[in-house]
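Appendix C: a fully annotated inverse folding record. The material below is reproduced so that readers can follow the format used throughout the book. The structure is listed first as tokens, followed by the designed sequence.
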């Protein structure tokens, strides 16, 4: 909303090249909104506007920009501008940018950073991709258990200025092993002559630097923390992960899961920043797979051509039958995938989920099947058609088929994510279209098998 209010003035000042007035206006605009405004500007204008920003604000704005726009600006920066921007970024933000840069820019950006920060960056970049080590910042405050509160507060005032957060203070031993974490308010309220040890309960939660970044998202949410420490394999404190660090990760993971569940590969960048070629490439493979699945559906129907010739009315209900199974399967798959993603359930909980979804499938199938039976009989009655035994038989075929297919769809959608987890594949690829395609083929077989069973000797 703020962007829409400031945008006309912003564009007018750029058109008039009134850079002095624009600089004053930008001082009151949040960094995220400035980034949004820069996105719509060509590179040569964006770089002029960017130069008007104060160094800390410029770094914050740059951190908000999507990769493609960031690379465009980096290409236009001189060495001093590179140094100013990178020097004002947090280490985890520097890592995030370097991960996305093309090769020819990486070394140029690294050369703009002072030697001490280069060593720190190379250490962070040495951790596996998408690990907590790549996400953490080494800027934190730690104290020793044998320090007094007075000495600790003096230490916090000295080093807290460069820390990403001082809401939580970490306690380490002589070998830098993490032994506790304390809220800052505990220190503020304590007697200044007490030792840190008197506040400790030696109970804390920590991440491993080798954990997946998703684990940081889950733990911060689970324990309702603003920050969590990250330790190496020996328990040595090497960094912290803050809530704002994981917000982008959470958004990226959710977006990735949603895209996979829609039946496509996850995009490497924002939709608006992805090329047409990338959009086609990410979607084409899955469309081909689903196309082949639909061919199998057509082949399955072709196998029952003789049945359809004798009872043409059966063809009218094919879309109803297969869509009901697909919808049921998609619902179950979405529920289970999301529950797995949020750790609400574990891969080993498949038996419990099977029981729940089988029971709910029986109930849903029974209700939808009954609705189908009543609807078909009621339709013939409303149309003034005679209600004869074949009417009930046909309605029975549709009703029983709906019951079986909804039950089967529910079972397939719920169990497929567990199968993929066992195969070390992302459960999200058991997307709604994929489940629907499986159930379509199976639904045709179930439908016509029931029709043959109930209609043999009458209509067949």
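Designed amino acids, in order:
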């Amino acid at each position: 909303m703020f962007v829409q209010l400031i945008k006309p003035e912003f564009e007018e000042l750029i058109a008039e090249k009134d850079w002095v007035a624009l600089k004053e206006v930008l001082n009151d605009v949040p960094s995220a909104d400035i980034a949004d405004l820069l996105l719509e500007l060509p590179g040569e204008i964006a770089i002029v506007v960017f130069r008007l920003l104060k160094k800390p604000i410029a770094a914050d704005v740059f951190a908000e920009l999507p990769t493609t726009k960031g690379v465009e600006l980096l290409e236009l920066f001189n060495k001093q501008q590179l140094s100013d921007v990178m020097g004002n970024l947090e280490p985890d933000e520097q890592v995030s940018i370097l991960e996305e840069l093309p090769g020819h820019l990486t070394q140029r950006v690294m050369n703009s950073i002072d030697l001490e920060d280069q060593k720190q960056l190379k250490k962070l970049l040495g951790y596996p991709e998408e690990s907590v080590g790549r996400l953490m910042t080494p800027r934190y405050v730690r104290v020793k258990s044998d320090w007094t509160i007075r000495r600790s507060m003096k230490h916090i005032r000295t080093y807290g200025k460069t820390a990403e957060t001082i809401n939580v203070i970490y306690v380490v031993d002589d070998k830098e092993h993490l032994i506790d974490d304390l809220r800052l308010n505990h220190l503020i309220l304590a007697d200044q002559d007490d030792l840190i040890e008197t506040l400790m309960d030696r109970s804390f939660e920590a991440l491993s630097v080798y954990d997946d970044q998703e684990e940081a998202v889950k733990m911060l949410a689970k324990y309702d923390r603003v920050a969590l420490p990250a330790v190496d394999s020996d328990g040595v404190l090497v960094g912290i992960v803050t809530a704002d660090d994981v917000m982008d990760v959470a958004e990226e993971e959710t977006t990735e899961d949603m895209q996979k569940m829609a039946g496509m590969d996850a995009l490497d960048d924002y939709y608006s920043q992805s090329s047409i070629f990338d959009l086609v490439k990410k979607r084409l493979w899955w469309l081909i797979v689903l196309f082949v699945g639909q061919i199998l559906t057509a082949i399955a129907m072709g196998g029952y051509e003789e049945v359809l010739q004798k009872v043409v009315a059966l063809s009218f209900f094919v879309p109803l039958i297969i869509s009901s199974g697909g919808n049921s399967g998609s619902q179950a798959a979405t529920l289970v995938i999301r529950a797995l993603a949020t750790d609400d359930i574990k891969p080993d909980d498949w038996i419990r989920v099977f029981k729940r979804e089988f029971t709910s499938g029986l109930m849903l199938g029974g209700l939808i099947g009954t609705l189908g039976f009543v609807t078909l009989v009621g339709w013939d009655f409303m149309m003034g058609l005679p209600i004869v035994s074949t009417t009930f038989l046909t309605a029975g075929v549709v009703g029983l088929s709906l019951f079986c297919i909804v039950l089967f769809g529910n079972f397939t959608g719920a169990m497929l994510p567990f199968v993929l987890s066992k195969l070390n594949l992302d459960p999200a690829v058991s997307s709604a279209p994929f489940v629907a395609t499986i159930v379509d083929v199976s639904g045709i077989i179930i439908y016509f098998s029931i029709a043959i069973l109930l209609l043999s000797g009458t209509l067949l």
